[in-house]
Specification:
Strand order of the largest sheet: 1-3-4-6-5
Bound molecules: zinc ion
Number of helices: 7
Distance between the termini: 87 Å
Number of strands: 21
Strand content: 35-45%
CATH class of the largest domain: Mainly Beta
Oligomer: single chain
């Protein structure tokens, strides 16, 4: 009778036997091999669908509710690290451990998500506690351009310090800033004062972390920061919305598209003075009756043909775009006895026009969401449209 080996194991067995290894020994080699731990750095998107065993540390555990069918289900997600690298994970079962614990994951599933590998812990997977100590990630001096920093892990970048603000919180001093090279920008937090200042060009190594959904460089005791003689011209990452979707968002990125929609919740709004949520009738769902504060915003959809993103444009930028202040809009609304007059004016003046937009973009199950930092009308470089416009002028 033929053994119920799966085909890859029986191929493996044939290979061993052809090498002259006795059957029992070959079998043992294969079974221990299937128990072999895979290193995180060996897992790429091309291994999607494979089942792996891992020994690693749980770096972070986040929780979210997902609606599958009628009942909400809890999912856990975060990052796993070992000595070789890190990978994101999603777990569909409870994790009876804490962040920082080392574990053995048996039968974790590799899946591809946005061109990158992820580990899925599902019902078939087994989670065991491990005593193995994982230090911080091996500090390979991996040099990267900022646009190529796509995952957490240890990295070295060379760039210009675009801002460096000294702050203090709970008696802890730190520097929050932005570093940029010719491919893009990224925020950093330095817990050690290496003496650099705005305008310096430096080579800095640190740990890439995910901070509020965006990648950020954390500079600590183990980091190295030194002056660099490289001539660095700091530029923003400029890309299509489709490319931005593939990247899963980015810090201070630039896109160019058409304002396709101004959504509900745009125009004149009232906010809770404590939590800044938009409120109706001076009633905050969290803080009850409050003295609401007037504000102005646009929730818009920008589209460039390759994809779209929802963006939030705050008061200052709205005032600039529309050439009117919040006070003037409030007067308009009072005179018309209709606050909706403001969002209608936004639609008349801004809708279906092209804009160059710069902002921090995060990605979630609803798509891309940008907090706009800079917005300006795009120069129309499409010759057909310009020619069409000219013809219209002649007619
Ligand atoms: Zn509130």
């Amino acid at each position: 009778m033929k053994e119920a080996d799966d085909s890859s194991d029986s191929n493996e067995l044939e290979k061993y036997l052809s090498m002259g290894i006795p059957l029992e020994e070959a079998k043992r080699a294969i079974s221990s091999k299937s128990e072999e731990m895979t290193r995180l750095s060996n897992i790429g998107p091309e291994r999607a669908g494979e089942v792996v065993n891992l020994e690693c540390k749980i770096l972070t555990i986040n929780e979210r509710e997902v609606n599958l069918g009628d009942e909400p289900k809890k999912a856990y997600y975060g990052f796993l690290v070992d000595d070789t690298g890190s990978l994101p994970y999603t777990s569909w079962r409870d994790i009876p451990y804490e962040k920082g614990n080392s574990v053995v994951i048996k039968k974790g599933l590799v899946r591809e998500w946005k061109g990158k590998a992820e580990i899925v812990i599902n019902r078939q997977s087994v989670l065991l506690k491990s005593d193995r100590e994982f230090g911080s990630l091996q500090k390979k001096k991996e040099r990267k351009k900022i646009a190529d920093v796509r995952d957490i892990g240890w990295v070295t970048v060379t760039g210009k310090i675009l801002s460096a603000e000294r702050r203090e919180k709970n008696d802890k001093k730190f520097i929050r800033g932005v570093i940029g090279d010719e491919t893009g920008r990224m925020p950093f937090t330095s817990w050690v004062d290496f003496g650099f200042k705005e305008g310096d060009t430096v080579e800095m190594s640190g740990m890439v972390r995910s901070w509020l959904g965006l990648l950020s460089l954390s500079i600590g005791e183990e980091s190295e920061v030194k002056e660099s003689q490289e001539g660095v011209e700091a530029k923003r990452l400029k890309l299509s919305i489709g490319e931005l979707e593939d990247r899963g968002g980015g810090f201070e990125v630039e896109v160019n598209g058409e304002l396709l929609e101004i959504q509900k919740g745009s125009g004149l709004i009232v906010r809770c003075p404590i939590c800044r949520r938009a409120v109706k009738g001076n009633n905050c769902t969290i803080h009850g009756e409050v003295d609401g504060v007037w504000d102005l915003r646009i929730k818009g959809v920008l589209d460039d043909g390759t994809g779209n993103l929802s963006m939030i444009i705050g008061r200052g930028l709205c005032e600039e775009l529309l050439g009117k202040t919040l006070e003037e809009f409030k007067d308009d609304a009072k005179n018309a006895m209709d606050p909706a007059i403001v969002s209608r004016e936004m639609e008349e003046k801004l809708l279906l026009r092209r804009y160059e937009v710069i902002g921090d973009t995060r990605s979630d199950e609803f798509g891309l969401r940008m907090m706009v930092k800079i917005i300006k009308p795009a120069e129309d470089k499409d010759p057909k449209k310009i020619a069409g416009g000219l013809l219209e002028g002649i007619r």
